């Protein structure tokens, strides 16, 4: 266990380094922020000056050296656009994203696992068909459709919740509801499929022979056996949310990391891109370690 | 609160630095609300009004003297004097700061500010600028203590000060008691940021916002709240006149005739937009409303192309039609329609929609299209009243975005730039005329924007709303 | 030797194809899903040849024509788009790019991802440690940045878009496969195969993969819609497929501003995406049952009842 | 006779399969009274387990279907009862010991938890349940209960798992206990211990016991009455002694005639060169030493039986030998090479030669393959054995040799009975035509008749092709009939080895002597006598 964590920490750190190196060089192949930052009619002089100020005129390898040097001093550089430390900008946004991801994934997991298991209990039954149908439609519908229709209906027509923004708990309702739908559909299907197999195994019969209630047969005996693919997919969906839900953030004016990342990419604000990747990557790496630990906890036959 | 307004902007403010106020999203919050300028452009008639400078006179040799308003205090309590102006100029033009205002309006010139006394200052430009007072309408004044780095707490002489900035969420401006001018009605303004057009528009009926400066044409359906106003943007296709077959004037004429401009109005482009004949807005100096819009005539266009073909012009060369995503509402559809219209002349037009970073490479020299003839769709914004901000870049041989190189045109531009007074207008008119005769571009529209204003307010957006939103002009019903 | 269990009736031998067809017919939803998918496939293959001209014919003055109005000809039954082009024809033509991109990306991601996952899960050597880290890296690499990088350096052709989308989808297959392999490889029948001398590929493909495939298919079918919509957001940022090329995703995205004024612009392509995804999923659910001997009776019985 | 506690009337069960319905149970009726022991004997695949499952409401409907009949418990028909009532009965009133313990234990929960659950489900407090669990585990002979309770099923030996199942079923002292082959994986001493435990319980609570078995010795030892099933029908019933002494039905006669342990023992094993030599092989699971230095030779054409108490490391020896587990030490010389150091390439060659029949047949068959695919896989892997055109015929031939039918080739493993699955596993091992087969309890789930048939087959193959067997078994009569040499294991060590006659007639070690003494005789009369003697001794 300790050995596993140690090994994982090392290999994750190496991955992170590789990731940063790759992003550093690759992102710089996509162009120069100068043209995007300065007005279109800016003189060559102003451009050269801008490059010099932001160190963009130096050879790439020197820039990289400086970057590494700064990072070692815990300085992630300044955002060109925002003229602020990039890490500060990213953490501000990540705070929102993290909350959104945690709340959403918790709700999704609970709902999808419960309903998916119930659907699997009576395959082809009414509940199964209804759950499958609606979850699939939700999962396949374009998210902005759902978002806009929800705003028009719940905010404009009914006036129950604010259209967008942050501030009160009510502001969270729609973004979470819309974010909920796709992972819910996907996870429900994975749970359902995995549970169909688990529910037909012999050990569930043993449970039945013991007089265990159907509820426990499903959620205690079969579910744990069916959980491996489920937590994997939950992890994948959570990672997607941690990387930022761009559409939702855009529509609901949610100051998360997804929109920040997109803007920074489009503006070639490299320090912010790198800081954002670093922060989300660490979050995702930690999550994956937890998931791998969960495998071993869920299934004692898996040992690392 | 009765006297509070909520304004939903389409983009988050990345900084609140006054010297970046020429960026429209920053300008809408800061310009004339927090930071004021020496002069102010009256967008209705193109005249120049006093603001922090009460008057100004040309001293000759590129030097202008400005007499500053007295009794003005900054929101941090310090009083306004000529040292502040001098510092603001240095700061805005400083190479260390790369301010947008400096790069955009003061590129290629050196300004020297010499305070004469506390309330008088002389500003000299090299080379001489006949329109220096107009340029000063862009330069935001900050106190002389302001550090030489981007500030996060803007201080200005305007009627409001920034009291809160929750990054990503909102910015709050509160009315100052010690403003030198008339007390505005609005006491507090909250700025929210919503990128999505439909959501932004919905915020007014939902009661979450009072003013939404930019809504999409499609959402502008409520006459009581939605206002259309010219937004000083002009759309056009820049033609690479140096590359065959576009170097043939018949081809350029054919392109101009092939566009059924009227068909766009009220469909993809708002009804209220007007057909463009030249690069600047109709209220700018020298604007010639009498220039004719090339008439839509497909047969004639086809004939011209055939004629050129007969003369050995390589009309079958693939011509790139480059559009920029998100440039203006419906841009993709407009470009698709243009591609079809232009193709009907018999030319070989290929549409390419690109992201802004790539588009700039097509638009500014050296052109990314290289040897391939290209038509680059662009939208030009000149709300400063004088064509000088446009014409050199767009038409001179060395102009950064110029697709044409014509000696006579170059001469006309140089002449107009140096003129002052009434002759200046005439000189510009000649430039417009020449560009028109050369079919240097395919002009499309002077665009309009839409804003939604809650019925509770008495406020009519105007052309100025594009770059600033003066809270003091908002009245409460 | 006595007869322990006698089949009461011995139905005549049927060809494998007939058997599968019967199993398919037993699940009516899956049957119609298959028909729909075949129809989409036909559109993808023949659509552009047959409809290209109709689909690109603009009519600015007749834009956003409302649906269900036959007075303007059958082609406008689903309405017209922003440029007055018939939506029906555009949907049919767009099927080609859409299917190419979605199927290409999903299939590629699934093949590569599950192959890597199998190696990572089955091998106990260095690969078991390295490959999951690769997934970590891809997972934390913003897909948009990847798209910008790849499509900046290469041009935004269908192939490159498939490449980008496929790469970003690899981790889910990789990780799911790996997790399942970790468990399945411990089962006794895998050991039995080992004892018989089954080479590793056989153990992986014949014994382990079939146990995992249903889960992978479930994910893959739902990924279809995801990839279609992701592709459209790339287009929107200028790094995906660009007009005048069309895909359903792009149509949905372009219709977005009209959601409240001309809903049909994005509704039909959205519906096409939903129906395709739904059909694929119904089919994969059917396959899960049909391929699992312990579940197959569900179809066999149903088939008898209905047949 | 007392009022019956559980009565099955005219029960018929049909399974739907792709090739039409299969009638697994036809018109079966039997009953048990309190305190009574009813044994169901019968051919493997004759519907014994299915009828028991019907009582427990464990038949999946569909694909299974109870087409007729009633199951009456204390005057109430279980088949018409609602689910809640039914649940109250399951586990508490009627409990079942499953035939195949590995698949019936939940792999992801500790065994202690699973036993506890049987108690808590029916209202025992958790703390009490914990103590009770340890007590039960102790009773069924699991070493070190406290430490074992937190282990998972895969960490136990086959016999230990079976005992855990038994503990689970006994937890609530049910009125009726259905024991489906409860002792197939148990060595005779433990078997005796378990049987007396059951008896004890019967005395205490008046429990009715329905025992499904093929072991005539067990029947003789504890059954009051016997029901004989064949092909889904009851062909004969009566008291144990009656049926043994005076079988009426043709099938019963054959069955009793096939009881092992009556034939000639193999004489003077042919002393050939050893083809396999284990030197000091050891295996540790963490701290626990499962094997502590095992040495033995296997000669060509020899049958080497390994007997010994449950959990003594028999299966571990086999698994290590086949490199399914990496050994902790030692060498295994085969053809002059150490099996433990072979490269994957060389291992592949060796795999053809040494085959194994696993102790848990269900788990060792891929559920997604048909029997045809399972058996012919051998030839896919080693194509030189048989040309593809002959596969179909050869599969049919093998199936018939192990007592199945050619048409079974299209079924999937879950459609078979426990014994049938075991035979599929044997057929698979034979398909490869190996030189050594390791049989881990390979015939333990078979009725004596099929058992005899399979053993005959193995014997014949040995003579024809010079096969060698390592035959792990606890069923001493079978060992006696089949083995040339015997190894006795205890606690991971070999305590005695020698020719079969020597071990059976002159056992040196007390452990071996005890083992032999605990062996059961199929004749109820003999068994009754032995019991009386034993009781007298203990009294
Ligand atoms: N799901 C199923 N589908 C089809 N046939 C089945 C199914 N389950 C069991 N059978 C058949 O029912 C018959 C009876 O099986 P059962 O398990 O009751 O046998 P058994 O008497 O317990 O045999 P054994 O002693 O080998 O365990 C067998 O012939 C088996 O092939
Ligand atoms: N994976 C494991 N982890 C820990 N202990 C194990 C594991 N597998 C087996 N054991 C232990 O090793 C010992 C020997 O097991 P093995 O399966 O070889 O017994 P066996 O002689 O075959 O018994 P049986 O006759 O009951 O099948 C047992 O005590 C068992 O608990
Ligand atoms: Mg059985
Ligand atoms: Mg064993």
Automatic annotation (TrEMBL), chain A:
Keyword Membrane found: yes
Signal sequence interval, chain numbering: none
GO BP of this protein: transmembrane transport
UniProt topology in membrane: Multi-pass membrane protein
Pfam families (alphabetical): BPD_transp_1 (PF00528)
Main localization category: membrane
InterPro entries for the chain: MetI-like, MetI-like_sf
CDD domains for the chain: TM_PBP2
Domain of life: Bacteria
Residue ranges constituting the ABC transmembrane type-1 domain according to the UniProt record: 94-291
Gene Ontology CC terms, in alphabetical order: plasma membrane
Membrane-traversing stretches: 96-121, 133-160, 172-191, 226-252, 272-298
SUPFAM superfamilies according to UniProt: MetI-like (SSF161098)
Record keywords, A-Z: Cell membrane, Membrane, Transmembrane, Transmembrane helix, Transport
UniProt subcellular location: Cell membrane
Family of this protein: Belongs to the binding-protein-dependent transport system permease family.
Protein name: ABC transporter permease
Automatic annotation (TrEMBL), chain C:
InterPro entries named among the record's database cross-references: BP-dependent_transpt_permease (IPR050366), MetI-like (IPR000515), MetI-like_sf (IPR035906)
Transmembrane segments: 29-51, 99-122, 212-241, 261-283
Membrane topology value: Multi-pass membrane protein
Pfam short name (any one): BPD_transp_1
GO CC terms, sorted: plasma membrane
Localization annotation: Cell membrane
Keyword S-adenosyl-L-methionine applies: no
The UniProt record lists the keyword Transferase: no
Key words, A-Z: Cell membrane, Membrane, Peptide transport, Protein transport, Transmembrane, Transmembrane helix, Transport
Domain ABC transmembrane type-1: 95-284
GO biological process, one term: peptide transport
Signal peptide extent: none
Matches recorded under PROSITE patterns: ABC_TM1
Similarity comment: Belongs to the binding-protein-dependent transport system permease family.
Protein's name in the database: ABC transporter permease
Organism (species): Paracoccus tegillarcae
From TrEMBL, chain D:
SMART domains given in the database record: AAA
Localisation: Cell inner membrane
Membrane topology type: Peripheral membrane protein
One biological process term in Gene Ontology: transmembrane transport
InterPro entries from the UniProt entry: AAA+_ATPase, ABC_transp_ATP-bind, ABC_transporter-like_ATP-bd, ABC_transporter-like_CS, Oligopep_ABC_C, P-loop_NTPase
Key word Ribonucleoprotein present: no
One GO location term (cellular component): plasma membrane
Main location: membrane
Superkingdom of the organism of origin: Bacteria
Keyword Nucleotide-binding: yes
Annotated Gene3D superfamilies: P-loop containing nucleotide triphosphate hydrolases
Residues of the ABC transporter domain: 8-256, 276-516
Keywords: ATP-binding, Nucleotide-binding, Transport
Annotated SUPFAM superfamilies: P-loop containing nucleoside triphosphate hydrolases
GO MF annotations, alphabetized: ATP binding; ATP hydrolysis activity
Pfam family, one: ABC_tran
UniProt similarity note: Belongs to the ABC transporter superfamily.
UniProt protein name: ABC transporter ATP-binding protein
Source species of the chain: Paracoccus tegillarcae
Species classification: Bacteria, Pseudomonadati, Pseudomonadota, Alphaproteobacteria, Rhodobacterales
């Amino acid at each position: 266990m300790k050995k596993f964590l140690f090994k994982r920490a090392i290999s994750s750190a190496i991955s992170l380094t590789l990731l940063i190196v790759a992003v550093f060089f690759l992102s710089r192949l996509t162009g120069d922020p100068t043209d995007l930052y300065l007005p279109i009619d800016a003189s060559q002089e102003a451009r050269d000056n801008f490059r010099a100020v932001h160190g963009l005129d130096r050879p790439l390898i020197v820039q990289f050296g400086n970057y590494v040097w700064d990072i070692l001093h815990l300085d992630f550089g300044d955002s060109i656009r925002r003229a602020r430390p990039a890490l500060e900008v990213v953490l501000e946004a990540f705070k929102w994203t993290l909350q959104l991801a945690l709340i959403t994934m918790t709700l999704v997991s609970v709902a999808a696992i419960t309903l998916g298991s119930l659907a699997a209990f009576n395959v082809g039954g009414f509940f199964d068909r209804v759950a499958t149908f609606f979850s699939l439609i939700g999962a396949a519908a374009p998210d902005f459709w759902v978002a806009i229709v929800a705003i028009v209906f719940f905010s404009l027509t009914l006036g129950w919740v604010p259209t967008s923004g942050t501030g009160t708990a009510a502001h969270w309702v729609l973004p979470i509801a819309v974010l909920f739908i796709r992972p819910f559909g996907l996870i429900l299907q994975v749970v359902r499929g995995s549970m169909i197999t688990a529910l037909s195994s012999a050990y569930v019969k043993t449970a039945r022979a013991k007089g265990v209630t159907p509820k426990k047969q499903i959620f205690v005996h079969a579910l744990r056996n069916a959980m491996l693919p489920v937590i994997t997919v939950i992890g994948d969906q959570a990672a997607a949310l941690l990387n930022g839900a761009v559409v939702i953030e855009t529509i609901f004016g949610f100051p998360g990391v997804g929109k920040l990342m997109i803007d920074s990419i489009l503006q070639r604000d490299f320090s912010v891109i790198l800081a954002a990747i670093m922060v989300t990557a660490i979050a995702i790496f930690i999550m994956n370690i937890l998931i791998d630990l969960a495998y071993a906890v869920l299934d004692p036959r898996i040992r690392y | 609160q009765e006297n509070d307004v909520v304004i939903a902007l389409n983009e988050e403010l990345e900084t609140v630095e006054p010297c970046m106020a020429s960026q429209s999203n920053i300008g809408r919050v800061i310009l004339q609300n927090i930071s004021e300028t020496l002069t102010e452009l009256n967008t209705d008639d193109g005249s120049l009004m006093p603001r922090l400078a009460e008057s100004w006179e040309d001293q000759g040799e590129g030097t202008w003297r400005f007499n500053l308003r007295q009794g003005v205090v900054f929101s941090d309590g310090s009083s306004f004097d000529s040292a502040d102006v001098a510092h603001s100029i240095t700061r805005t033009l400083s190479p260390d700061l790369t301010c947008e205002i400096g790069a955009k309006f003061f590129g290629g010139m050196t300004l020297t500010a010499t305070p004469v006394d506390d309330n008088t200052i002389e500003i000299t430009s090299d080379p001489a600028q006949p329109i220096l007072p107009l340029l000063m309408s862009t330069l935001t004044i900050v106190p002389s203590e302001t550090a030489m780095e981007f500030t996060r707490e803007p201080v200005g002489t305007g009627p409001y000060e920034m009291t809160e900035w929750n990054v990503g969420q909102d910015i709050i401006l509160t009315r100052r008691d010690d403003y030198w001018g008339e007390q505005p009605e609005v006491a507090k303004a909250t700025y929210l940021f919503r990128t999505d057009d439909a959501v932004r528009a919905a915020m007014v009926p939902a009661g979450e916002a009072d003013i939404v400066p930019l809504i999409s044409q499609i959402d502008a359906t409520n006459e009581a709240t939605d206002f259309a106003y010219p937004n000083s943007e002009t759309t056009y296709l820049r033609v690479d006149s140096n590359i065959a077959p576009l170097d043939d004037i018949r081809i350029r004429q054919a392109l101009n005739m092939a566009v059924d401009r009227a068909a766009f109005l009220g469909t993809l482009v708002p009804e209220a937009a007007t057909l463009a004949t030249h690069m600047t807005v109709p209220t700018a100096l020298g604007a010639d409303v009498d220039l004719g819009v090339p008439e839509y005539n497909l047969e004639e266009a086809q004939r011209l192309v055939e004629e050129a073909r007969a003369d050995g012009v390589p009309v079958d060369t693939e011509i790139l039609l480059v559009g920029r995503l998100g440039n203006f509402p419906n841009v993709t559809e407009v470009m698709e329609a243009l591609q079809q219209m232009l193709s009907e002349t018999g030319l070989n037009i290929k549409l390419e929609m690109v992201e802004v970073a790539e588009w700039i490479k097509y638009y500014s020299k050296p052109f990314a299209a290289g040897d391939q003839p290209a038509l680059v769709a662009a939208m030009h914004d000149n709300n400063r009243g004088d064509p000088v901000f446009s014409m050199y870049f767009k038409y001179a041989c060395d102009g950064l975005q110029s697709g044409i190189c014509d000696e006579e045109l170059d001469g006309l531009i140089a002449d107009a730039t140096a003129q002052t007074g009434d002759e200046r207008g005439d000189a510009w008119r000649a430039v417009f005329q020449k560009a028109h005769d050369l079919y240097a571009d395919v002009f499309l529209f002077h665009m309009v924007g839409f804003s939604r204003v809650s019925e509770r307010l008495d406020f009519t957006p105007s052309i100025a709303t594009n770059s600033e939103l003066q809270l003091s002009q908002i009245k409460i019903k | 030797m006595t007869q322990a269990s006698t089949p009461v009736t011995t139905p005549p031998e049927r060809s494998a194809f007939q058997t599968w067809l019967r199993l398919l017919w037993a699940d009516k939803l899956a049957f119609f899903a298959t028909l729909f998918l075949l129809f989409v496939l036909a559109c993808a293959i023949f659509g552009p040849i047959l409809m290209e001209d109709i689909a690109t014919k603009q009519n600015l003055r007749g834009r956003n024509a409302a649906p269900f109005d036959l007075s303007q000809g059958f082609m406008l039954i689903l309405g017209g788009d922003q440029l007055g082009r018939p939506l029906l024809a555009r949907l049919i033509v767009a099927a080609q790019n859409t299917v190419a991109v979605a199927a290409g990306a999903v299939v590629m991601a699934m093949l590569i991802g599950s192959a890597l996952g199998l190696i990572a899960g089955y091998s106990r050597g260095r690969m078991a440690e390295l490959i999951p880290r690769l997934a970590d890296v891809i997972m934390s690499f913003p897909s948009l940045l990847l798209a910008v990088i790849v499509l900046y350096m290469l041009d935004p052709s269908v192939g490159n878009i498939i490449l980008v989308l496929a790469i970003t989808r690899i981790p889910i297959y990789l990780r799911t496969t790996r997790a399942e392999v970790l468990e399945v490889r411990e089962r006794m029948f895998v050991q039995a195969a080992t004892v018989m001398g089954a080479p590793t590929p056989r153990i992986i493909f014949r014994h382990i993969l079939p146990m995992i495939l249903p889960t992978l298919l479930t994910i893959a079918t739902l990924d279809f819609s995801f990839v279609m919509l992701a592709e459209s957001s790339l287009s929107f940022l200028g790094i995906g497929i660009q007009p005048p090329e069309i895909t359903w995703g792009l149509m949905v995205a372009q219709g977005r501003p009209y959601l409240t004024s001309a809903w049909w612009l994005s509704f039909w392509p959205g519906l096409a995406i939903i129906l395709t995804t739904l059909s694929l999923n119904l089919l994969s659910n059917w396959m899960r049952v049909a391929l699992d001997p312990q579940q197959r009776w569900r179809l066999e019985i149903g088939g008898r009842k209905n047949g | 006779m007392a009022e019956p506690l559980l009565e099955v009337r005219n029960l018929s069960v049909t399974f739907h399969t792709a090739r039409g319905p299969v009638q697994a149970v036809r018109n079966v009726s039997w009953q048990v009274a309190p305190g009574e022991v009813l044994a169901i004997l019968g051919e493997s695949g004759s519907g014994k387990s299915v009828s028991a499952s019907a009582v427990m409401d464990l038949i999946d409907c569909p694909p299974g279907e109870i087409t007729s009949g009633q199951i009456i418990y204390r005057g109430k028909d279980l088949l018409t009862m609602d689910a809640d009532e039914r649940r109250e009965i399951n586990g508490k009133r009627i409990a079942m010991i499953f035939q195949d313990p590995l698949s019936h234990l939940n792999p992801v929960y500790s065994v202690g938890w699973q036993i506890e659950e049987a108690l808590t489900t029916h209202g025992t407090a958790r703390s009490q349940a914990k103590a009770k669990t340890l007590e039960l585990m102790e009773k069924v002979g699991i070493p070190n209960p406290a430490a074992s309770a937190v282990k998972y099923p895969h960490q136990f030996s086959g016999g230990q798992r079976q005992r855990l199942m038994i503990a689970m079923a006994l937890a609530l002292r049910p009125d009726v206990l259905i024991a489906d082959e409860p002792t197939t994986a148990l060595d005779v001493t433990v078997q005796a211990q378990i049987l007396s435990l059951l008896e004890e319980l019967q005395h205490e609570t008046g429990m009715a016991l329905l025992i499904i078995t093929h072991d005539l010795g067990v029947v003789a030892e504890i059954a009051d009455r016997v029901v004989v099933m064949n092909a889904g029908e009851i062909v004969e019933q009566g008291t144990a002694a009656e049926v043994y002494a005076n079988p009426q039905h043709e099938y019963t006669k054959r069955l009793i005639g096939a009881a092992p342990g009556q034939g000639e023992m193999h004489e003077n094993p042919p002393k050939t060169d050893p083809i396999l030599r284990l030197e000091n092989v050891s295996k540790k699971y963490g701290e626990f030493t499962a094997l502590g230095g095992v040495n033995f030779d296997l000669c060509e054409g020899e049958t080497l039986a390994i007997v010994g108490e449950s959990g003594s490391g028999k299966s571990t020896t086999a698994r290590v030998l086949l490199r399914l587990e990496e050994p902790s030490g030692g060498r295994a010389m085969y053809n002059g090479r150490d099996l433990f150091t072979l490269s994957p390439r060389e291992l592949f060659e060796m795999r053809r030669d040494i085959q194994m029949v696993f102790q848990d047949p269900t788990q060792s068959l891929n559920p997604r393959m048909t029997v045809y695919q399972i058996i012919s896989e051998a030839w896919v892997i080693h194509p030189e054995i048989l040309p593809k055109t002959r596969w179909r015929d050869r599969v049919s031939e093998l199936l018939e040799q192990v007592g199945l039918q050619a048409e079974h080739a299209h079924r999937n493993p879950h459609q078979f009975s426990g014994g049938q699955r075991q035979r599929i596993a044997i057929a698979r091992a034979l398909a490869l035509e190996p030189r050594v087969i390791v049989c881990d309890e390979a015939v333990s789930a078979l009725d004596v008749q099929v058992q005899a048939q399979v053993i005959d087959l193995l014997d014949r193959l040995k003579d024809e092709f010079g096969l060698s067997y390592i035959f792990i078994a606890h069923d001493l009569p079978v060992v006696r009939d089949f083995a040339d040499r015997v190894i006795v294991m205890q606690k991971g060590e070999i305590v005695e080895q020698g020719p079969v006659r020597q071990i059976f007639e002159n056992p040196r070690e007390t452990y071996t002597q005890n083992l032999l003494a605990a062996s059961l005789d199929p004749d109820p009369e003999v068994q009754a006598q032995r019991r009386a003697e034993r009781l007298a001794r203990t009294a």
